[in-house]
Amino acid sequence: MKTKKFILFLFTLFFSIAYGKEGDWVLDFNEYFNSELTEDNIEITTAEIEEINENLAFLYENPININSATREQLEKIPFLKHSQIENLLEYIFDYGPLESIYELTLIEGFDLYTIKNCLPLLTLYKVEKREKFSIKKAFKYGKSHLTLYSSGTLQKKEGYKNGKYLGKPYSLYLKYYFKHKNMSFGFLGSKSEGEPFDFKYNKGFDFYSCHLYFSDISKYIKKIAIGDYKMVFGQGLVFKSSSNFSNASIENAIISSDNIRPSYSTSETGYYRGAAIQIGGKKLSFSLLSSFTYYNKSEGYHRTLNDFEKRYKSPSYMVGSNINYTYKYFKIGFSGYYDFYDKWFNAGIDYRFRIGRFLFAGETAFDKNFKFATINSVTFSCNDFISVCSLFRYYPLGYRTKYGNAYSKNSHTDETGLYVGIDVTPFKKIKLEAYLDVYRISFIKTNINKPSVGFKFNIKTIYKPDDNNTCYLRYNVYSKEKNISNNDLVKKTGITYRHNITLNYNISLKENFSFNANIISSVFKVDSLNNSNRLSYGFMVSSYGSWFAKKGRFSITAGAAFFDIPFYDNVIYFYEPSLHYTFSSPQYYGIGARFFFLLKIAPVKGMTIDFKVSNIYYVDREEIGSGNEKINGRNKTQISGILSYIF
């Protein structure tokens, strides 16, 4: 025990000298996504970023007590791998509560960099008897969040000129929610550009959402959700309403975590509307849920009369349930639902268990026609420096899931694939991430009139010499077969390859200035049997700098990008700093330049006001976009602003 306390003293002293007080840690959510959300995972939506931001902000205000934390609570921290969470829970199970937060350094997988990132989101105190939930205390210690957002394009689009767009050229949303660790309620209203804000076609906003949510309000009532909510059980074959994202490791991208949570998102897809309840104890839990909604994955904008005619054409009404049993390193669950409108059902069994350094997870499900699908993964943590993961998925032709969203590269109806990834930290300042994902489609699909195969390979090397400098080099190649001729009689096919190389450098100077620079190149190649090969190139360079006032009352960010991408096959998406709770990854295609200016102000405690203006200029065209989105001219200017107040 004396040795343990001495080690803890040394680590505490080291952290105090190296990193300062915990309160000095500044949470910059947008920069958190800088190196991760680019062309590799552009399918992650702004709405999902919105929720990740809000979750991190809540954890910053309400840190998790390590000694009483559940697996579900720890999985909310995106800096942690699943294997690290398992190691932490095992350590507490074997040795009892932690005496100091710096005792994390004694747990396998917790390096100094990981602990530093997690410190502001964690706390540690003696586990007392469960505190009885009280509405009065919830209102006393909870906080209200009010957000007003708007954005628009200055140039007039064709849809407004010809009168087909029924609304004004700006988007708008108003959101309010109250949040406590055991309770949340809120509402929001939103409209997109071109959607009417009236009482003729809409009832004010185009989309409304509200929720009432309780968590751990008694010994046996774990969760109650009324209104709009999100959930995932197992690995997402039966129930899953959002994508995986974490920059902790590649293993977190393929392993899902059970959860029922309120929906704070402005997205009109990817949520359930109704009620859900989860009851149970430490080992056994039972969830019952229902949902009725007209929104589904095919819903889009409601800007024209044709859009409104298609509205409410795909109702969904389902009831479902889940049963979970968990004991130490083992978990098994059963999920299922029945949709009354489609007269469709899915059911499945999922598992997760650990044997030594191996973590296994998977799910097998079937649909109404008894088509079986399965997804299974294994993660091996060799030591603190190397972890390997793999995932096999099989979604047969004809298999259908209406509410599932398990890992896939194309779809959940016809795909067989294998994903293999590795995280390596060979040296203290260098980290290597790589994965290979290969898949096969057994039948024809859009843009390919025969069975096909494809793969994606990604490798990324990160060099971080100190806290102020970070550099990474990433190479990825995406290959797939597709039709290269539109001839109705003879469709020629070929194999396409898209190679991307990204070099990024970020530096923080002193305490109030940072600079980021990027170079990205793209090569697209088509190989075909009839020698109709094609090769195209594209590249872009971008940079931006940020200045922060010492007291954190305001910051200024400005940046520019220059691109030469003549062919759409080489299109590039890349991260750009944006407003709080929003995410920006502009599309670069053509020849031109993009500039932006971002101002963030915190006039009073709890309030932030952000303003952004961006302009893209093309030298290779006189029109931007097509159809109702067409703009006559070479410029496209967007202005956006957001006001957020926490009280």
Describe the structure.
The chain has 647 residues and is mainly beta. It has a domain at 1-32 and 63-129: DNA polymerase, domain 1, CATH 1.10.150. It is 12% helix and 47% strand. It has nine helices and 32 strands. It has a 24-stranded antiparallel barrel. A two-stranded parallel ribbon has the order 1-2. It has a two-stranded antiparallel sheet with strand order 26-27. Strand 18 (415-427) and strand 19 form a beta hairpin. The longest helix has 18 residues, at 2-19. The two termini are 44 Å apart. The model is unreliable at 1-28, 38-43 and 245-249 (pLDDT under 50).
Summarize the structure.
This protein is mostly beta strands and 647 residues long.
